[in-house]
Structure formats: C-alpha cells, structure tokens
Specification:
Largest sheet of chain A: 6 strands, mixed
Strand content of chain A: 5-15%
CATH topology of chain A: Rossmann fold
Number of domains of chain A: 1
Number of strands of chain A: 10
Largest interface: A-B, 72 and 37 residues
Helix content of chain B: under 10%
Number of helices of chain A: 12
CATH superfamily of chain A: HUPs
Structural class of chain A: alpha/beta
Oligomer: heterodimer
Order of helices and strands of chain B: EEEHEEEE
Strand order of the largest sheet of chain B: 2-1-7-4-5
CATH architecture of chain A: 3-Layer(aba) Sandwich
Distance between the termini of chain B: 53 Å
Largest sheet of chain B: 5 strands, mixed
Strand content of chain B: 25-35%
Radius of gyration of chain A: 20 Å
Helix content of chain A: 40-55%
C-alpha cells in the first residue's frame, strides 16, 4: 500500500477519502483538515487566546497539539473527576503532555474544590455518571474560559462523536438538540465561544495521529462509560462505515450543509414562546447564567455533597495554578 | 498478540494479513488500529510469527463534551 502523495510505504488507509498516507503525509492531512474546519466555520481568529478542554485522551491531546502546531496560542484545562485510578492516570497524561511541550495546563479538581467526585456525587445526586460528568465539565470549562479571558473554548469532539450524537438526536427527533448541533457555538452572555476543530477527522485517525506524533494518551475507556448509549451508536455507525465507507462523514457533514437549518427554523418558532417566558438570570450561588434560581451545576453540587462534607458554594475561582484568575 | 479494552493476550499463528487477522478476531477495522513493533500498519501488511502486535481500540465515549443542553442555555 503506497502513500497517495509520495508513493512511499503507507501506514494508514482512510477509506472514506479513498486515500493511503505515509506518516509524514498523514500528519499533514490531519493539519489540513483542522485548518480547513477552522477557516470554514470561522472558529478562531488570528491572535485569539484559546483554551482547550483536556481529558488526557487522544482527541483532546491531539487537538491541542494540532492547534499549537498551526500557530494558535492555546492553553489547556484539565478537570479532575475523581474516577479512581482512571482519573489519576488521565491527569498524568495531560500533565506530561503539557510539561514535555512547555505548554500551560490549568487544573480544577472536583473533590478538592467542590467536595464531590463523579462516582460518589452521581450516586448521591441520583444522576448517571455521564450526566453528572457532562454537567460538571460544561460548567467548569465555561467558567474557566471566561474567568481567564480566553476568546474561545476548544473541545476534541471528532467526526465519530458528532455522528453518534446526531444519530441519537435523530432517533428521538430531538429538534432542539439538532438545531444546536454545530461545530461552532457563538459566545453569548455568560458563555464562551465553543468550537470543535476535529469534526472532519475520525476517532481512528485521532488515535493514529497520537501514535505517529509520539503522544502518550489514556487508552483505557472510562469505567463509568462502559455500555452507554453513545458507545452503542458509535459501534452501529462503524458497522455501516465498514460496508459503506464515508457513511459517517456523509451523515454528519451533509446534515450541517443541508438539514440543520431546517431544524433551526422549526426550533425558532417553537422557542419563540419559550424565549418570552424564560429569561436567563444569574445563579444565586455562583453567578452563572441560568433560567432558574440555581444553575444545574450548583444543584448537582448541592445534591452530590448532601451526604458528605458540606461545601461552601460561594462564588470562587474555578481554577487553580493559573495566574490572573478572578474570584467571584 | 496484545489486545486492549479489555486487556488480554492471544496467540495467532502467522504469517497472516492484518485484514485477515481482524476478520478472524471479528473486529471492525473502523474501530481499531493494528500496531506492529510500535508502528501502525495498514490492512495489507503481512504479520509474521515473531511480530509483537497490539490491537488498540479507538472508540471512546462517555459524557458528551461541552454542548449545552436546552435547559442550560437561553433561547437564541
């Protein structure tokens, strides 16, 4: 198997692109796809400060590496979720990556700073671990990006992630989610701009990118995610991809081009009423935007810590180890 | 041969093409990478008896990122 570009020995075949690449040209392919995505969706302007949500897994470390390689000013933020050895190892991968490259990694530890971890907190709050984890990370990433003056928050969602989410949303016709499934969410009051530069690259390519680039990452799956619906959707889509290469990319990218606007219109009319009825105020605990008195994160913290040590939920810095953070 | 998630070791007689190996193990080529002696190899690579092979899954999941749910954002 030969590289499409140089005819040297290929290391990877990308069937949806009908292309094989050697290591050098595979890395170039990844960089080109990310730059194309950033440009197409106006994700990051020159000179903007970027915060990458880092988990220690392949996607977040790869996107951080790619952005720095493309010349963007990107720092990382790692949230310690307290999922036993898995989280300990994940944090180590993130720290090593940053140290080896001289990059700045901010950290937040749920147990130290908010008094709960995902396993015990989700149980106490009667939430699924993935739900509690998602609520926690969304809040902390948003808050850190705003507190530390970043222009944009980057996540490592790849093509497989987005296609799986799309499948789940279509299966239930969740039009409000479909309307918002975009690679860019613009900044709004209390929320940073959020972008997903990896949406043209699959999981297999991201794992390959890390191996070829010498990025050591957390390979093991989160023990709390085993058997969840999202993984099931990915497996189903990979069965389709095996039979019909390009199915995942067609499904997701064609949705963006041809279908999302249809849902956006439908939701706008549906939400007209909601917009009139619901205004975002400031959470009485932390000050984050919320349609209620207390935001979803603070409600989670309250329930998650109800049976453990009480936690002072006054507004405070969301990150540690980061000069320039603001309290309040 | 070393397989991950769950971690296990299996022994397969070579020589054998990567694509044939994955078929025999009933693994979807879209869901794994095959690494021989530390380097990724494509499906048409012939594996020999003395090769050290890792088959690494590439699928990860869990809390799906930072997209806000409708309840957590204001209407646009």
């Amino acid at each position: 198997m030969k590289c499409r570009v140089c005819r040297d020995r290929a290391i990877i075949d990308i069937r949806r692109a009908n292309a094989n690449f050697c290591a050098e040209h595979f890395l170039r392919f990844c960089r080109d796809q990310v730059q194309k995505t950033i440009d197409e969706f106006d994700m990051i302007a020159p000179g903007e400060r970027v915060l990458v949500a880092v988990s220690g897994g392949k996607d977040s470390l790869a996107v951080w590496d790619l952005l720095v390689g493309l010349g963007y000013d990107a720092d990382g933020l790692y949230v310690g979720l307290g999922i036993g050895e898995y989280s300990d190892d994940s944090g180590d991968y993130a720290r090593r990556f940053a140290e080896q490259r001289g990059l700045r990694l901010l950290e937040v530890d749920l147990r130290e700073e908010y008094g709960y971890d995902i396993p015990t907190g989700s149980r106490a709050a009667r939430r699924s671990p993935c739900s509690a984890c998602g609520t926690s990370k969304r809040h902390l990433f948003d808050r850190a990006a705003l507190e530390h003056g970043y222009d944009v928050l980057v996540t490592g969602h790849n093509l497989d992630d987005e296609a799986a989410v799309l499948l789940g949303n279509v299966l239930r016709w969740q039009v409000e989610y479909l309307a918002r499934q975009m690679p860019v969410l613009p900044a709004r009051e209390g929320f940073p701009r959020k972008v997903k530069p990896l949406v043209r690259l699959g999981e297999r390519e991201m794992a390959a990118y890390c191996i070829v680039s010498g990025i050591d990452y957390q390979v093991d799956e989160c023990p709390m995610a085993v058997g969840n619906k999202h993984l099931g959707y990915k497996e189903a889509l990979n069965e389709l991809e095996l039979r019909s290469p390009g199915s995942k990319a067609d499904f997701y990218l064609s949705f963006l081009r041809r279908a999302r606007h249809l849902f956006a219109g439908a939701v706008a009319s549906e939400e007209g009423g909601v917009a009139d009825e619901v205004e975002l105020g400031a959470c009485t605990r932390c000050g984050s935007p919320t349609p209620g008195e207390v935001c979803a994160f603070c409600r989670l913290v309250e329930r998650a810590t109800a049976t453990t040590a009480p936690v002072e939920l006054t507004p405070r810095s969301a990150t540690r180890g980061a000069p320039g953070g603001e309290d309040g | 041969m070393h397989l991950r998630n769950p971690r296990r070791e299996v022994t397969v007689d070579g020589p054998m093409l990567v694509s044939v190996l994955l078929d025999r193990l009933e693994l979807n080529r879209e869901s794994v990478l095959v690494i021989r002696n530390g380097e990724i190899v494509p499906g048409d690579t012939k594996l020999e008896d003395d090769d050290r092979i890792e088959i690494r899954p590439v699928i990860s999941g869990g809390a799906v990122g930072t997209d806000p749910t409708p309840a957590e954002v204001a209407p646009r």
